Amino acid sequence: MTITLTPEIPRTIRAQIGWAIRDTWVITCRDLAHWRQQPGAVIANTLVFPIMIVLMFGYLLGGAMTVPGGGDYREFLMPGMIAMTMVFGIGATLSAVSADAARGVIDRFRSLPMAAPAVIAGRAAADMLNSAAALAVLTGCGFAVGWHPHRGAARAIAALGLLLLLRFAFLWVGVYLGLRFYPNPEAVTAVRTLEFPLGFLGNPFVAVSTMPAWLGAIALWNPLSSTVTAARQLFGDPIGANSSWITSHAIIMAVAWPLLLTAVFFPLSLRRYQRLSR
Amino acid sequence: MVIINFLHCIELRFLVLEIPSIACEGLCKRFCNKTALDHLDLSVPQGTVHGLLGPNGAGKTTAVRVLATLLRPDSGHARIAGFDVARQAPQVRARIGLAGQNAAVDEILSGRQNLVMFGRLCHLPAGAARRRAGELLSQFALSEAQDKPVRQYSGGMRRRLDLAASFIVAPRVLFLDEPTTGLDPAGRNEVWQTIRALAAAGTTVLLTTQYLEEADQLADAITVIAAGRVIAWGTPDELKTLAGGDRIDVKMRAAGDLVPAARLLQARLGTDVRVDQDGRELSVPVTDRLAALTQIIGSLQEADITAEDITVRRPTLDDAFLHLTGHRPPPDGTVLAAEVTRP
Fold it and tell me: Smallest CA–CA separation between B224 and chain A, in Å?
């Protein structure tokens, strides 16, 4: 004889919030368990590429690079590289969300008596933790090749905070795109390659002033560029001479851009999630 | 005290038996310009296995997704164990299990980690979730592979893990959407045995399938749907009788023999003979299989017509379809409402 266990549904708002937090944590732990289960793959996915680019741009191509306004290219590169890792986070979120949606894992979660927001909140928490870990490792690599913040710990932490804020905004871009394109794996791959124009049409690798004027304008107004410039200022790294309005207000813009992106893509993601039941 | 408890049990049992586990009325669902469910009615008593049979695109998956609270119906009502799927979704979710067409489990985690995670999400305390995972792993014969990552599992093992995951809270109602699609015969048998065991223990099972044989093996009652409508309902035996019982297929060597042979057999056996020009095949409905077989062979020999192959077989879903609708289901399943509802 089978014993039927019927989970209780929380009645009070407090109990519901408690449930949502617990469910979020269970979903987050699922992702963290991937680290333990296959540490090699996680490291390869999140870290090998950025480290490779640090080495490639820093040593292979870096000799030919000069930073307008003076300064060491590797110092110029470091914040850009960390920001690029945040950009690659879009792809990580996008792939994880679209794979879960396509394989029916999200449907299974939705058929369980769990708190509905936990499915996406758990994903968000796991991705932020992954990115924070990537940030820590890259910063460590930076120290190893001789880079270090020049303007004190507080400003350095502020810079890392701005980088994580950008990651938070990209998270919702990834969730939205994942839920939008999951039925079509080719589209997911195609959308994922858009990370590259987003990254290279900005200032992580070269100063905007070295580009043709029209391209430079696009690169300047790329949300990524504001965060990179702000991080360079806060770390005390060279920013590459530029006197445009958006460069001189980099720190404000590094807060404003991610908030704007979140304001657009967070509701879009929620709407997409709700539309799964349409 | 004992007597009161006893009476209470009787009353509860009575109440439970009164409410069908699955009841839906006039369920409609449209996607853009395609009708997926067209006033679907369904009633499944508690503790029975119900087969939802139909070709691809008939609306089976949509029906399951609506009943399992994953899709909102456009109109109509559905109740699971007495709770409305649209307005009381959390109560419904606490009482159902769902296994979809692909194994919806985490491929990187082990079987045990998956089950513990789903148990936690069903709000079992950590210890209870671990215990339940252990129970399910042995119940579904996965104990040996419990610590291997799921991507190393065979198709049958994956499907069993998926079933185990849908069974964490030992649900009142279990939805299985084509549970054996893509499995080899051994894997299919494993899954069939599991489903039988669950049903024997009192779970109500709604199972979708494209194969009459599968529904025949497992289901107490079958609903045949096409274009989102119920086109037939009954026990497997009733349905097979509807489908015209057993059939003998005769494959001809020469295409020119088809029509003369069909006329001949029609006259001799007194039944409708179906001609399949492309397959150079005749299909004859029969009641007494051996007598009919002898008669067919004799008649063909007399008329000097050479048959390449003769097969005696059970009716298939195709036959049931042809019989119920007068049309063969289209190969890729885009059944049009007009085609099916035409008498």
Answer: 25
> Within a 10 A sphere around the Cβ of B151, how many other Cβ atoms?
12
Residue B32 and residue B180 in one domain:
yes
β-pair partners for B84: B79
The whole-model pTM stands at: 0.82
**B94–A33: do the CB atoms touch at under 8 Å?**
no
Distance between CA atoms of residues B206 and B52, nearest Å: 7
CB-CB neighbors (< 8 A) of B122 in chain A: 5, 7, 112-114
What confidence tens digit (pLDDT) does each residue in B179-214 have? 888 778 887 888 888 888 888 888 999 999 888 788
Range of the domain at B126: 21-234
Q: How many residues does chain A have?
A: 278
Query: Does position B20 have pLDDT exceeding 90, yes or no?
Result: no
Between B197 and A45, the more confident residue is: B197
DSSP-derived pairing of the beta strands B221-226 and B49-53: parallel
Question: Which of B81, B64, B218, B201 minimizes the C-alpha distance to B135?
Answer: B201
Q: Residue B77: inside a domain, yes or no? A: yes
Interface test with A, best of B123, B174, B175 (most A CBs within 10 A): B123
Q: Is residue B102 part of a domain?
A: yes
SS3 A156: helix
Judged by CB atoms within 8 Å, which residues 257-276 of A form the interface with B? 276
| CA-based nearest distance A27→chain B, Å | 8
- Degrees (nearest 5) of the Cα angle B241, B243, B245? 50
Examine residue B1 and state whether it is found in any structural domain, yes or no.
no
Q: Which residue of B has its CA nearest to A96?
A: B106
For A30, which residue in chain B has the nearest alpha carbon?
A: B117
Q: Please give, one letter per residue, the 3-state secondary structure of A77-132.
A: HHHHHHHHHHHHHHHHHHHHHHHHHHCCHHHHHHHCCCCCCHHHHHHHHHHHHHHH
Residue B287: pLDDT over 70? yes
ipTM for the whole complex = 0.87
Q: Are B183 and B102 in contact, with CB atoms under 8 Å apart?
A: no
Residue B304 and residue B207 share a domain: no
